[in-house]
Design goal:
Distance between the termini: 49 Å
Strand order of the largest sheet: 1-2-3-4-5-6-7-8-9-10-11-12
Structural class: mainly beta
Shape: globular
Number of helices: 1
Number of strands: 12
């Protein structure tokens, strides 16, 4: 009986330690900060910063000039993920928008990955509380291939009202480089135009 008790106690200790490790992982905060600099031909260039904080299922975020110029939005959301070989990660969010544009915005973030291929999308429906006719749907999507962990390239598309454009949906190309805590990406929207829109993005995570 005593010979069976020691392995049982050892197994219980291992399970308890694993549970504690998972609990600590759930309690740990993860932070990120991004800055997208838009160079828009015939319009004013601008920077679009955002900061995020995640702890387990909880997602918090603040953005500036995302929905409109001189406009801030704050968000709270729920993280979830499924899959192993094919992975899906999503965040359902609700945001408040104030500044040049005021409103309420349900939104999402989602990514689907398989091997070196990944599809990413984020979007929101902004309900303008000052003028319902100004409500709109915003979206940004990327389809990328990563031949190595530190580099990726692919296609990008967006629908925005932050600046004036003749295209309802802008589309383009992207090239990104990633390190352990740093991500740098260049986007070129409407590359067939005489003066395409260029976006430089810098991201930090810690």
């Amino acid at each position: 009986m005593r010979s069976l008790r020691a392995p049982a106690l050892l197994a219980a200790a291992v399970l308890l330690a694993a549970g504690d490790a998972r609990a600590e992982e759930e309690k740990a905060w993860a932070f990120s900060a991004y800055a997208y600099t838009f160079f828009v031909p015939g319009d004013g260039d601008y920077v679009q910063p955002a900061v995020t904080a995640d702890r387990g299922r909880l997602h918090l975020e603040a953005r500036y000039q995302y929905e409109d110029s001189d406009t801030t939005s704050v968000w709270a959301g729920y993280n979830f993920s499924v899959g192993d070989t094919v992975t899906f990660e999503g965040t359902a969010m609700l945001g408040g928008v104030f500044g040049r544009t005021d409103g309420i915005a349900p939104g999402y973030k989602a990514s689907l990955g398989w091997s070196k291929l990944e599809w990413y999308s984020e979007g929101e429906v902004l309900f303008d509380t000052n003028a319902s006719s100004d409500s709109f749907f915003y979206a940004w999507s990327e389809l990328t291939w990563a031949p190595a962990e530190w580099v990726r390239f692919g296609l990008v598309g967006q629908r925005t009202r932050v600046y004036e454009t003749d295209r309802e949906i802008q589309r383009g190309l992207l090239l990104g480089f990633s390190g352990e805590h740093v991500d740098v990406t260049t986007y070129v929207f409407n590359p067939d135009d005489d003066s395409p829109t260029v976006v430089l993005a810098l991201g930090l995570s810690f």
